[in-house]
Design goal:
The protein is α/β, with parallel strands linked by helices. It is built from ten helices and ten strands. Strand 1, helix 1 and strand 2 form a beta-alpha-beta unit.
Length: 299
């Protein structure tokens, strides 16, 4: 049986439409159960939320469609954790997307391939649909400690390891002097900063806690190249996404059967991903410096 899909939507009808159309075009869509979770509006968002709710009920996007409309606003992080847990408890596995994921037509095929092939491999904890646009081409599939949340899947055995307490995660990483590795050899400092923000209660990011939970278990993510997902939400419209084109990718256009690869982190790819994020950080800092220099000289 194909894994069910959990789709989380809020107040972005145009993004949601692109996501749903790309999902409907998937090769396994007609044999997949789709659960759509619509969070209740915060003040001022009522019209857009209703527009999204009208949209999600307008077509038969997958073989079966179940729509769950929250009566109170839970926020994206609580909404995802609670409902992914419920769905995985019921089915033993789940595929998760949000309303800004434009999918390859083979997305469901690859997710299910990975879920079946590595179901009993306890070190494999995550199947990731998004692949960073590194400078060099990558293998068609590989393992890495990188639990990206832009289109992903997992099993109950892995999700049961999710630790919602950011303090416990931070203390465990700190106690074992693992922040250098957690930050990809010091090149992705945003990972630690996000976790620290969760510790202070300023943020409640489920995805950084999911990455930290896997990291502490020495868990691996299965990833595919080319990417199966393009995140179309980096236009300033999302909860946690900046306005940038840095993460844009072209999605997989051909199906390549899942290859047998060692269940080990590919260190060369880890370095390539770390370098990519480090270069993005440098680019961002350069842009900030450029803006401030123009202000200083009155341009």
């Amino acid at each position: 049986m194909n894994a069910p899909v959990a789709l989380f939507v809020y107040n972005r009808p145009q993004h949601t439409l692109q996501t749903l159309l790309s999902l409907k075009a998937n090769t396994l869509a007609e044999s997949t159960a789709l659960y759509i979770y619509s969070d209740a509006p915060r003040k001022g968002h009522e019209l857009k939320v209703q527009e999204v709710r009208d949209l999600i009920s307008s077509q038969q996007w997958c073989g079966t469609v179940h729509i769950i409309e929250n009566e109170v606003n839970k926020g994206v992080d609580v909404n995802i954790v609670e409902n992914v847990t419920t769905l995985i408890d019921k089915y033993g596995k789940a595929i998760v997307i949000e309303d800004d994921c434009f999918l390859s037509k083979y997305f469901l095929q690859y997710m299910n391939d990975g879920l079946v092939k590595y179901e009993n491999e306890t070190r494999v904890m995550h199947v990731s649909g998004y692949c960073e646009p590194t400078k060099d081409a990558l293998p068609s599939s590989f393992f890495i400690q990188n639990a990206n949340g832009w289109g992903w899947a997992t099993w109950k055995r892995a999700w049961d390891c999710y630790e919602p307490n950011a303090v416990k995660l931070y203390d465990a990483i700190s106690k074992n002097n693992l922040f250098y590795k957690f930050n990809y050899e010091g090149k992705i400092l945003d990972a630690q900063k996000q976790l620290e923000s969760c510790v202070r209660g300023e943020m409640h990011n489920w995805d950084i806690k999911w990455y930290a939970s896997q990291f502490l278990m020495d868990g691996l993510a299965l990833k595919f190249y080319p990417s199966l997902v393009n995140n179309i939400g980096h236009d300033g419209s999302g909860e946690h996404c900046d306005d940038t084109a840095a993460f844009n990718v072209s999605v997989q256009q051909e199906y390549v059967p899942l290859q047998d690869v060692p269940i080990l982190e590919n260190t060369a790819i880890r370095k390539a991903v770390a370098d990519y994020f480090f270069n993005q950080s440098l680019s961002f800092l350069a842009k900030v410096k450029h803006v401030w220099m123009r202000k200083l000289i009155g341009l």
